[in-house]
Here is the input.
Amino acid sequence: MLDPLTGQGGFELIVDSVSKSYGARRVLRDVTARAGAGQVLVIAGPNGSGKSTLIKIVARLIRPTNGRVLWKLDGRALTAADVRRAIGMVSPDLTFYDELSAIENLRFFAQVRGLSATPEFVKSLLDRFGLRGRSGDLVGAYSSGMKQRLKFAFALMHNPPLLLLDEPTANLDERGIALVYDTIAQARLCKCVVIATNEPEEVRLGDVIIQLGA
Amino acid sequence: MSSSNWAREALAVLAKDIRSEYRTRYAFSAVLLFAVTALAVVSFSVSPYSLDADVQAAFLWIVLFFSAMTGLSRSFVREEESRTAMSLRLTTAPEAVYMGKLLFNIALQAAVAAVVVPLFLVLMDIAPTHPGLLAWATILGTLALASSSTIIAAIVSRANAKGAIFAVLAFPVTLPGLSSAIRATTAALRGEAGSGLGLVAGVAGPAGAAGDLRSLAAYTVLMIASSLLLFDFVWDD
Here is the structure.
């Protein structure tokens, strides 16, 4: 079983000739890339170019029509369960339970991830992303920026070796954006970070860039 | 994944669903409203004494069946519609999601049956000849309905035309379990001489009902086993 705390250094992500079609509409065509721990892979392109589709394929949320994605640790291909443990994801499509508080949401996801779901652990996560004062509020009452911060707490709670960020600064104010860039800077020291974006500032963070067409 | 991880994840999903349901009454209100309304309408418009035991049993299971179809499908549909399914897919093993949802649906259907069956007996003025057999038929029928509707709900939640697919799938999948439950309930209500079921000590009833209870148990085991095998394909893209 993958131990995310120790298994970061040898992590490698390989996107091998990935294509995706929805019926007759081809969204991705033969996309190939490789990135490892300590690298940022940027998926850039205009709206509708397939950035979110590709990052979901990397997250194993959807299957490619052709090609494959490999997640490797020290040269060993990871199982589906290991991939789940290896991934932390922030996405506009990611939603939490509105009827539960931020603490209850994070405790639930910590429990299913097999983490210690103590109140101290969850509060420290929320504190890190500036949500401590509103930790007991129902998520349904959160603003879109607060929900985005909560997504980062969700994505990083298990210290994953692969961090997938789809439009990471969406809905955030200046302080939130600075927090995200600081998080990316820390993450790239030891993790493989994948960012799907069309923000020029975020594209410049990439060590490897996949440029998708319209 | 080890069995302890699996069980821990499934119980976490169950606890989360119970907490969500307690806060929103999303499924329970709809199910209970349907069940009580249906029971009240029929009992007030039809003289209970004019109905045979088999019609009474069929009526009880029609109410429980449509209650299940009304509420139990929501467990998955809601995850898809509110887009929380993505966070579950990212964090939780598919088998644990299925088992957590199954346990929640069993709890919900059991709660509905606990209200509906006594209400049915009172409103229809029925004193079951074999109350033990009625209890077993209700318990096993509840498990059968919950197990079949959980996997149907998972399939339906991924479809665009949810209503049409639900009706098409639910009828053939639930029919074997439903017909066994109706036969066992008919035997429990009908005043036939008890001959001992041989299934559970102290439960008396017509001998034929034992086969129906065994069929219900076998149907439930088969549904859960096949659902666990299928669920990966249903849950993943």
Chain A is about 30% helix and 25% strand. The mean pLDDT of chain A is 92. The longest strand of chain A covers residues 11-22. Residues 174-187 of chain A form the longest helix (14 residues).
